[in-house]
Amino acid sequence: MSLSERLHPGVNLAGTDPESHVAAEEVLFGFWIFLMSDLVLFAVLFATYAAMSVQGIAEGPRPAEVFDLTAAFLETLLLLFSSFAFGFAMLEMKYRENRRGVLVWLLLTGVLGAAFVGMELHDYYVMITEHAAPPQASGFLSAYYLLTGTHALHVSSGLVWMAIMAVQIAVLGFSTPVKLRLMRLALFWHMLDVVWIGIFTFVYLFGVAS
Amino acid sequence: MNWELIFGQIKWTSFVFAGMIENPSLSEAIASGAGSIAVLGALATVILLTVKGWWVPLWRDWLTSVDHKKVGIMYIAIALVMFARAVIEAALMRAQQLAATEGAGFLSADHFGQLFSTHGTIMIFFVAMPFITGLMNYVMPLQIGARDVSFPLLNAISLMLTMAGAILIMVSLVVGQFSTGGWSAYPPFTGIEFSPGEGVDYWIWAVSLGSIGSTLTGLNFAVTIYKKRCPGMTLFRMPLFTWTTLCTSILMIFAMAPLTAATVMLALDRYAGFHFFTNGDGGNMMNYANLFWLFGHPEVYILILPAFGVWSEVVATFSSKRIYGYTSLVYATMCIAVLSFAVWLHHFFTMGQSANVNAIFGIATMIIGVPTGVKVYDWLLTMVGGRIRFSTAMLYHINFLLTFILGGMTGVLLANPGVDFQVHNTLFLVAHFHNMIIPGVLFGMFAAVQFWFPKVFGFRLHEGLGRASFWCFAPGFLLAFFPLYWLGMMGATRRTYMWSEPAYLPWLALAMLGAALILAGFALMVMQIVVSVRQRAQLAAPLGDPWDGRALEWSIPSPPPAWNFAVLPAVSSQDPFYEAKKAGIAYRSPTTYEDIEVPRNTATAPLIGLFACAWAFALVWHIWWLVIASFVLIWVVVIARSFATDTEETIPAATVKAANEAFLAAARAAPGVSRDREMTSENRGRALPESLEGRSGAISTGPAVEVLS
Ligand code: HEM
Ligand SMILES: [Cu+2]
Predict the structure, then answer these.
(1) Which of A93, B327, B558, B572 has the least C-beta neighbours within 10 A?
(2) Does the beta carbon of B90 sit less than 6 angstroms from any atom of ligand 1?
């Protein structure tokens, strides 16, 4: 099987831009491995949270007392829709190489992502001021803030990355490196979705149910 | 003027010399002495570079290079410099413990604590890790017939992050103190309550930088091996060193993340009042123990697997035999890699889990002995009936087999929780892990240096001095560590600066003698390198194959050109170069040459390293403006680089052809040196294959024949 026929995780360009497709093979595989090690990091944070949310409450509040399920649900929607929008950006890139189209979809993705981060910051603010639940209050809250904070930090760096990509698309156009970077950003963004689904289920739903 | 805004928590009393002035003692004098050596060493380097006019070549040819070969050499240079420091610290600890069997010795408890912490941290993160990484960097791409690693710039960035960590540890000799919490830095002792100073912060950030570098390295090498093998090189034709590199890389990808998580949590506890590992408020230090050893146990296999790869190459080459049981060695390597994640709990048998848990992890630990035993038999059987030459590398190998087995057996003892309850935290444990790590990893790397040095620099190392250094290291190791088994069983605890127990004296004296011999071995090794550089004309072996090598790296000139392979090779067997020699088709000219693209040098990596170092230093001392500035600068560099488009340069086919044809002509014209004469100046790097020795016409490979690759 020749290299260009091989599929890789991510948007495959074999049909529309074979040259970039060949270049993508190695780079995207590498990024996939990076994501795996990042996922190990999240797995470790999940495990820590799992232990701390049971044994680390100390004198502090319990999960069910501090989480706002409605907010978490809205955040989930924001993030999912932003991934959806990113999908459209990638389709524009793949089939039309249309700068304006890609930029508009990226902008929408970015706005939704920023709204997600904003809502999370607001959650933190409410927890700290109304529930007296800062990360220093207990082991459970330390683990909660680290897990969700690491995710939020990832999303924020994704936003910065997105802004840089917008500039690069405007300046460099759809050169192979730019396409490859967009494809990696897409993978990154979707992975953050997956992690968030884990957080939503495991932290918020379980937390409120318990 | 608020100085704290500018200098953070650094005060004039933070400098090591202040301690000497304020309350002079031998302990303080030694600390100041070490600080002075660090400062003077740095100054001497600066002066040397200036006087010799080496700044420009250093920057142009080395620091900005992204060539995997140069990156590899720089890694090993870091390892050797840091080894010098850590081994001196080890000898100092030995002397203290000897002096402190009656009376208090000459070091303060605090100073001793810093010594074992820096010694352990440096040896693991800044000697062993850079050593194996450097070696894998240099050798693996050559073995798989690749021009470079998959991500050359990322490779240089990993190097510079490691270097930043090493520099940070060196700085801790002069400004402030290091942690006294050992290389594993267990909280709550390392929490802010019990270790309020900057020491633990030095440990946290130095280790974090190193661990990020290693994650990126693992990623890079795994992708390289999966994607950049030359045509025909199936996984089961890869040389064993490449196999172990692959498994080590996978371990790095998965094992470094828990360490990063642990250091970040510890940092949050210390800097921001979080409660991951604190005593109260829901913190739990057992979380740390789990996270740390989830990294820590795979880590010892990250270190040992590449050394196993080295042993496989060395024993096959110096026995002139195909390695025995190739497939079983591959599977054993994979088994070890997987199992290494299943045993971490044996590091805290005594910390309160149930007997059943202990039993399960004890058994899991013992099971690792099985694949390792398979390997030992394979190495032994490779030697059977072989044409063995007792070169320095081979001496190290035989010494390894003998002593590593003993170390392994003490490991099986420790895997039994009942035994572990008796000797954990004693010098028995210290003896055990040094028994694994010194003959296994350290001597493995020394053997690798002896073995591949002529490939890297184009001349052999002085054999006599190599052996002399071996004959100090090997018995030195035995003397330095075997007495510790006895001491441990007599109850001498680890990390203890005085006991006042005269019965320990004879054993400690022997151990001191051993440490002295090890120091002598290191001195001889340095001498070996210096003498070899001086005599490089007699020792020159530019033709690339001094030992009758087997894998592809021996088929190209020494040192290899920037592009490694003039034409990417195609292979159809294991030991492709050996087979080609045997069939008489080595050194033939390829039909065509093509232009080769190589990445240009770039200042990206050294700048990132510089700012990362500043960032970590600023974090240690709470210099917040510098924390922010250097963090921003790191990302400015990354982003600026992402806009660069002209990052490659082309080497024209004609240049490649001229260089390669000259090499091939010289190799064909050389008479070839037989195995008996390989340590003499006749050896110009064109081995007469063992398989052809004694046959007529073996010496000349005939005229250049056009062969399709
Ligand atoms: C070459 C000669 C060496 C000597 C003489 C030596 C000696 C020592 C001594 C005296 C200690 C302190 C034991 C105690 O605290 O009771 C120690 C600890 C240690 N050594 Fe070595 N060592 C050597 C090489 C190495 C190497 C090559 C490595 C690893 C690559 C290593 C890793 C460690 C570690 C991890 C510790 C534990 C530090 C801690 O307790 O946190 N050592 N060594
Ligand atoms: Cu272990």
Answers:
(1) B327
(2) yes
